[in-house]
Amino acid sequence: MSRLRPLLLILVLMAAWELAARSGLWSPLVLPSLERIGRELVLFLSRPEGWMQAWVSLYRAFGGFAAAALVGALLGMLMGRSALVGRMLDPLFSGTYAVPKLALFPVFIFIFGLGSLSKVALIFLECLYPMVIITSQGARAVDPVLIWSAQNMGASRAATLRRVLLPATMPYVFAALRVALPVALIVVIITEMISSVDGLGYVVIYSLASLRTDRMLAIVVVIAALGLALDRALVAARDRLVYWEKLDTYFA
Amino acid sequence: MRHAAAPAGLLVVLLVLWQIASLGGHPSYLLPPLEILRHFFAALGSSELYVHAAASLGRALPGFLIGSLMGVALGLAAGIARGLDEALSPLVFLTYPVPKIVMLPVFMLWFGIGDLSKVLIIALACFYPCFINAYYGARATPRILVWSARNMGAGDALIFRRVVLPAALPLIFAGLRVSLALSFIVMFAAEMINARSGLGHLIRESEMSLRFDLMYVSLLTIAVLGYAGDRLLRLARGRALRWQPS
Predict the structure, then answer these.
(1) How many CA atoms lie within 13 A of A142 on its CB side?
(2) Rounded-to-integer distance, Cα A151 and Cα A144, Å
(3) Does any CB of chain B come closer than 8 Å to the CB of residue A28?
């Protein structure tokens, strides 16, 4: 029952939408009925072009996200465990944290071209910040008693890293991944809306420009479902891989 | 002092390297730092930059205020009232990983292509981090403090104001900080997609007309504004949370 409760509010909202759409107060261009959105959704999912567009967006998002995850986790570990690297990079990241990296997109277009690369580069940059900041916090917060014990029992530096530091930092890495993944999705949609000839963001803007509101809303539904599904998948992976500690940081 | 000098040191080194690298000639779209700075100060003398910056702030700040106020208020309420929690939280947590920017075209359709749709999309984006942080902040109030206050005869309103709110404040500020950064991103995105004014529009227009000087000037302006906003917020945090180390 408690699992169904979130659905309840959504059902109420959907019913209200349908009622408003059928009341005739608004043009179907502004408020298409659920039936028409549903039909467009089925149409979108039943054609390979639709899947291609989704694949293009996912490909870009994953490219930037994966690179940022790797580089960010490594940099974060270094910053958290080495005072020198931390002192050098920490202020750089926290100082430029509030600067919207999106503003660099026009510059990236000139450097990396109009294609996927400029988008992937921007996704990488935006995802790097949460990865680095959260991972370095985690690496810094490792209980020193654990490290002392390991050293006391004769563990080498490599063994300490592999058996103590990595397991202790892993929950934070996953918390960072969970913040970075929606960011990757946001940035890919934004950049495709601004300048692209393919991808889901482009299809949304194109549908709006050709006044196919029902199609546009169907794709909004697809994007929302993608965001949800990816987050769920990440949580499932985290619960399998990092079973020793639960760090639920939906926030910050 | 050393702590403040170190970051500037690395940044200066990078900028000097960039400047030196561009001495031997540079592509027209990669201006050297000193050149950007020169254009920036030249632009400060004309009114164009101020007009666009004011238009941008006129969208980002109302959106941030509306979204974060609603987020903090509803998040705190859901954190202390079970009925509201059960009705609202599942929907918020369910839609949290959805990129809110996809609603921009929908909002443009409903509220027009003017400022209203942009302010609302910024408010929507700012709502989530504030709600979630305020929610967890209120829920993480140490139970024993609430009990002690009640034991000493404090009413619900007083407990909220003197116990729950201070306990939630650190997380609320964390949420505000994320929201402020988000408001700038969403404002910029909305202006790049569709606007007649604002820094996002300016950067897009200068990009298309190959006015690289103007492009970097708007980039620098948005960076300065974002940094200043974050600084102000951290200043406010330091004042409001004197009892807490940052």
Answers:
(1) 26
(2) 11
(3) no
Contact B102 A106 (CB under 8 A): no
Query: For the whole prediction, is pTM greater than 0.90?
Result: no
In chain A, how many domains are there?
1
CA distance A245 to B64: 35
Closest CA to A239 of A250, A248, A251: A248
Q: Chain B residues with CB inside 8 Å of A89's CB?
A: 10
- Nearest Cα of chain A lies from the Cα of B206 at a distance, in angstroms, of 9
Contact at CB, A228 and B133, closer than 8 angstroms: no
Tell me which chain B residues have a C-beta less than 8 angstroms from the C-beta of A190.
Answer: 101, 189, 193
Fold of the domain spanning B35-240: MetI-like fold (1.10.3720)
Is A26 among the domain residues?
no
Position A195 in a domain: yes
Instruction: Look at residue A252 in the predicted model and tell me its pLDDT.
Output: 38
Q: Decide: A86 and A142 in contact? Cβ < 8 Å.
A: no
Query: Which residues of chain A carry a pLDDT beneath 50?
Result: 1, 250-252
Contact A190 B101 (CB under 8 A): yes
Give A-chain residues touching B229 at CB under 8 angstroms: 98
Does the interface predicted TM-score (ipTM) exceed 0.90?
no
